[in-house]
Amino acid sequence: MNKTPINSEEFIDILKNYDIGAFISCKYNPAAVENTVYLLKTSKGKYTFKIFESSSDFDIEYEVKFMEYLRKKGVPTQQVISDKKGKLFSKFKKKNYVILKYVEGSHPNKLTPGLIKEYAENISNFHKISLNYKVSKDKFWRKNKKLDHEFGIEKSTPEELFGFPLLKEYKEVIKEMEKEVDRSKLRTCVIHGDIGTSNTLVKNKKFAAFIDWTDCHKDYLVQDLAIFVPINKFFFKHFFSNYGIKLNFEEKKAFYYFKKIRKLSDIGFIENFKRKNPDLEKRFNQVIKDIINSYNDSKKLSLKDYLSIINKNS
Asked: Does residue 303 contact residue 249 with C-beta atoms inside 8 Å?
């Protein structure tokens, strides 16, 4: 992915359009994979400066408006800083950027029972608010009103990777899910789309913020849970006892299949991203192999056994 360089003089020029103080320093964040991110320090505080490398105006407006809606409703997330004209995002070198209020915190290395409780309560609160959020057009579905993202297969999905029959597994899981899950019973809302420890912050053993809403979109509510919650008794017990939304039977079944589909879609996504960034091939080959191993392990747990676990611990 080509990153967008920006120097001190350019930051000084950009800050003339904002009321967030004078430029002090900037630091590039190499951990950001898809976009260009800097930690920006001014005379009034610290900010995240994010350049979108490929997102459209529609997608960014969708994201920042949703973030501000959630923040004003009390969901802990970064404030989107508007410029002197009230705009939430602007252009730099023909690319969109946003300035976000920096949130102190770190990515947790381990989720203790106390932290799992914190995550459950905050995700639940966010979902309850999002269930009442109305969008006229969704960034992923504006060309097709039928919400079938999790029930479809991307055309770019490779047939096989490292001896793993990716396309065949995709087709089999989706076929079984179509048979087992009544999708009309699955609640929808705008979800985060990539909740995990890398996209959340904690401070002093407390949940501090959701970050990086690039993947937010309308989807099945349970998809957010399938992305974040691992299938094990310990996590189920501490998470679902504090998650204030009771899943119905169809959502519980969908969770089982969505977890599998997420792993398969991650494999395809990373492979496509790797092809565009050959310098990262070695790193991402190992990631793909790790996900394949994780997926094969998940196949050992039947739907019946999984339902027994979640019903006893939720």
From this structure: no
Residue with tokens 């009321």: 19
CATH number of the domain that 227 lies in? 3.90.1200.10
* pLDDT, tens only, 97-151: 999 999 999 999 999 999 999 999 999 999 999 999 988 776 655 444 455 556 6
Element housing 259 (H / E): helix 249-276
Residue 207 forms beta bridges with which residues? 202
- CB 222, CB 254: distance < 8 Å: yes
**CATH code for position 82:** 3.30.200.20
- Give the whole-angstrom CA distance, residue 287 versus residue 298: 17
Asked if residue 207 lies in contact with residue 119, where contact means CB atoms within 8 angstroms, the answer is yes
173 and 265 Cβ atoms separated by less than 8 Å:
no
- Cα distances (angstroms) measured from residue 235 to each of 118, 127, 247, 275, 312: 12, 19, 16, 35, 12
- Give me the half-sphere count of Cα atoms (radius 13 Å) on the Cβ side of residue 204: 1
Q: Same domain for 303 and 185?
A: yes
- Given a contact cutoff of 8 angstroms between Cβ atoms, the answer to whether 38 and 102 are in contact is no
| Entry pTM | 0.92
